[in-house]
Amino acid sequence: MLQQTIRDQIKEAMLAKDSVRLSTLRGLLAACMSEVMAQKRKPDEVLSDEDVLAVITRSVKQRKDSIDQFMKGGRSDLAEAEQAELEILQTYLPAMMSKDDIRKVVEAKKSEMGITDTSKMGQFMGAVMKDLKGKADGADVKEVIDSMFS
User: Residue 42, exposed/middle/buried by CB under 10 A (0-12, 13-18, 19+)?
Assistant: First the structure.
């Protein structure tokens, strides 16, 4: 279980005195506990790996947004701290698909659904994202789809 792996790595980070990793993993574990509570489950229940990956993905997105905002605000010191946390979190995510692989899936879905123009773009995008959930970055998928219809 991914949640147990995170707990074990918190102990390792303590022993290694790796404060950045420790605080990042503690925050991640707290976010997992918040997710348990949000799902109205008992506090001692463990999330499924899929739920933990959703929490990690959300945390990664938050870090990317923070980095962007800090860079715009001229706070490179804070952006570097967020970047360090982002790199730690990304080690828990599965490898994302390349744009070439995404293009193959998008083309297959396009012919399967019979999409010829942008009139059903919302439905098409939703179907592709459902197929690629957790396997590809949403921004990359959008970029590939936009390039196919432009």
Answer: exposed
- Cα–Cα distance between 80 and 64 in angstroms, integer? 11
CA–CA dist 48, 121 (Å, integer):
32
Sign (positive or negative) of CA dihedral 83, 86, 90, 91: positive
Quick: pLDDT tens for 4-56: 999 999 999 999 999 999 999 999 999 999 999 898 888 788 888 888 888 99
What pTM did the predictor assign?
A: 0.73
What is the rounded distance in angstroms from the CA atom of residue 91 to the CA atom of residue 108? 30
Cβ atoms 98, 137 nearer than 8 A? no
